[in-house]
Specification:
The complex is a heterodimer. By secondary structure, chain A is of the alpha/beta class. Helix content of chain A is 38%, strand content 24%. Chain A has ten helices and ten strands. Helix content of chain B is 71%, strand content 2%. Chain B starts with a helix and ends in a 7-residue tail after the last helix. Chains A and B meet through α2, α3 and α4 of A and α9 and α10 of B.
Chain lengths: 250, 375
């Protein structure tokens, strides 16, 4: 067995006594695609906040490539190779599509090099390539604020890929997308697997099924069970969580 | 290529030629009083450029730029006072004797050096801004809380400078008019002409410098900070560092503006650090147009010229005009005058008034959707 890329050990997060996450254990192998599902309030977003450094866990440890991420600020964690896409698309509305991607792709992320250096030819190619993937070439010089919801979602996914992180954390990538866009997004995410490790959070079951990945079910801040989509859907605990207790069977 | 040059470059070249001609000719045309006035207002536009950098591009509304402005002014005034006090008792500036001080306070010593002073004018305000900014930014204090903290800092500095007669002549400030530089009185016509040219040159250099900063990829990061700072962190950038740097730049620019303002008005005093004055500075930029740079320069220049004219007519009325202007900009022209012009404001206004828009394509089809029948 290879060493895990990401390992969360006994993570607990408490908000004034309310346990948003409790004793959560989860590990991801390099190159894996993993889906995390769970009903509202299961702690899905909190869980991403802990990995990306936005939130410090009350107890437990997060290891990335064997190193602890605790006490590291967000931008350092991002530079280590963890990228995050937010639930509602968050792009820089007053920058053009190209500039948004340039921010993500740019290798120097420190002030001094950015003052003088332009984009390298390699970076330009990468930006053009990314715009091609998400079909935004024609909108390269349009400000991101004028894009449609779906285009913003895709721009943000492209920015995430442009950061070339080892681990991509994707929070509800298909919220508000058309069926066709949803299919394309699933294909895009699947194409990344292998080179990247991808963790997708969503509650669109059809979308998760299309990913054909391992699924972890989160419930009340705890991993309820893990397995393939078919296994998950037959698990009585999952059914209970999603649909309530089945009185007749009991 | 040539056509593009003719279409876009020539007006620009003409504007530059006119500006440079105006600067060169101004001392010959304007009376010294008017020249000093113009030079002072140009100094203020350097401060405004700094405010545009931090507020217009990065979204940091500082209500404490007066601190850095005054520090630049004090630095140059201390040097000038020392440079001209050899004939005074104890060889120190005259005002000290009023308070029975016969030894120069230690922090005055380095200001004997002209080189130290030239650096101190911008470096002390920049370092102070970096320190203050970093403390605030690293604790992720943002928005209106940042503004309040800068205003509180301004009050602290005002009260300190206002109360320290024995150190810095307190509320009276330091006069520079009769001090000497290169053996010539600072207030003399000759010197004032020189200061005017120097100020105009520095305005242009400061504009070019700030433009260079905001045009490149550094500037894109600044806009990203304004749009969504937390998101930028997850892209691997450290906004605290960027914000500290631009706040220091704005502080340095305010210091340079303050020094130039001081030598052309003949005095620096704690009045430069009052709360309303720093708010004025913000209004110049808001009216001129945030994020346009030219708007900041023109805003500072024009509002101050109007203020000067207006105050000679009706001194008490100015605050109403300024307040009204601010309300007007906030409600009707949120992009400021230059921002409004750049966004095609006059054209839109005409359209709204019923003047049809001229279009290059098939006439009127896009406007009312029906093709005109030819008669």
């Amino acid at each position: 067995m290879t060493t895990a890329l990401l390992e969360m050990r006994q993570i607990s997060v408490s908000f004034d006594g309310f346990m948003a996450l409790r004793d959560l254990n989860l590990s991801l192998q390099p190159g894996e695609l993993r889906a995390v599902i769970g009903p509202n309030g299961a702690g899905k977003t909190t869980f991403l906040d802990v990995i990306t450094g936005k939130l410090r866990p009350t107890a437990g440890d997060v290891l990335f490539k064997g190193r602890s991420l605790l006490n590291k600020p967000e931008h350092r964690i991002a530079r280590l190779g963890i990228g995050r896409k937010f639930q509602s698309p968050r792009v820089f509305e007053n920058l053009t599509v190209e500039e948004n991607l340039a921010l993500a792709v740019s290798h120097p992320k420190r002030p001094w090099p950015l003052l003088s250096a332009g984009l390298s030819a390699v970076e330009r190619d990468r930006i053009a390539h990314l715009m091609g993937i998400v079909s935004l070439q024609t909108r390269a010089h349009q400000v991101a604020g004028s894009l449609s919801h779906g285009q913003k979602q895709w721009l943000e996914i492209a920015m995430l890929v442009g950061q070339s992180p080892d681990l991509l954390l994707v929070d509800e990538p298909v919220a508000g997308l058309t069926d066709e866009e949803t299919d394309l997004t699933a294909d895009l995410l699947k194409s990344l697997v292998g080179d990247h490790t991808v963790l997708v959070i969503d509650h669109d079951m059809e979308f998760i099924r299309r990913l054909e990945s391992q699924v972890s079910v989160l419930h009340q801040g705890h991993v309820l069970c893990e397995g393939s989509m078919d296994q998950i859907q037959c698990d009585p605990r999952v059914i209970e969580v999603y649909l309530g207790r089945n009185e007749e069977a009991a | 290529m040539l056509q593009a040059f003719q279409q876009h470059r020539w007006p620009l070249v003409i504007v530059w030629v006119l500006i440079i001609a105006a600067i060169v000719a101004a001392p010959a045309v304007l009376p010294v009083f008017g020249l000093k006035l113009l030079g002072r207002f140009l100094s203020l536009s350097i401060v405004a450029l700094g405010i545009d950098l931090i507020w217009g591009f990065t979204g940091l509304l500082s209500l404490g730029q007066g601190i850095f402005f005054a520090l630049g002014g004090y630095a140059v005034a201390m040097y000038l006072q020392l440079n001209s006090s050899s004939e005074q008792p104890n060889g120190i500036p005259e005002f000290f004797s009023l308070y029975g001080v016969d030894q120069l306070p230690g922090f005055w010593q380095p200001f004997y050096s002209p080189w130290f002073t030239l650096i101190a004018i911008w470096l002390i305000p920049a370092l102070l801004a970096a320190l203050l900014g970093n403390l605030v930014f690293r604790n992720r204090i943002k928005g209106v809380y940042f503004s309040i903290l800068t205003q509180a800092a301004l009050l602290v500095f005002f009260n300190f400078f206002n109360g320290q007669q024995k150190l810095i002549n307190g509320t009276n400030g330091l006069k520079t008019g009769v001090t000497k530089l290169f053996g010539e009185e600072v207030g003399s016509d000759l010197m004032q002409r020189g200061f005017f040219w120097l100020t105009a040159l520095i305005v242009i250099l400061a504009w070019l410098a700030v433009r260079w900063v905001v045009r490149g990829r550094f500037g894109e990061v600044l806009i990203a900070i304004r749009d969504d700072e937390p998101r930028l962190r997850f892209a691997g950038y450290n906004p605290t560092l960027f914000k500290t740097i631009v706040f220091a730049m704005a502080g340095g620019l305010a210091g340079i503006g303050g020094a130039l303002y001081t030598v052309q008005s003949g005095i620096v005093s704690p009045q430069y650090m009052t709360v309303p004055y720093s708010i004025d500075m913000v209004i110049w930029v808001a009216v001129g147009g945030r994020g346009t740079l030219i708007g900041a320069i023109l805003g500072a220049l024009v509002i101050n010229l109007v203020k000067f004219q207006f105050q000679s007519l009706w001194p008490e009325g100015w605050l109403f005009v300024l307040g009204g202007l601010f309300i007007l900009v906030v409600t009707v022209l949120p992009e400021g005058v230059i921002g409004w012009l750049q966004a095609g404001g006059p054209r839109n206004l005409l359209t709204r008034l019923g003047v049809p828009r001229r279009i290059g394509t098939y006439p009127r089809l896009e406007i009312d959707g029906k093709e005109e029948a030819k008669s």
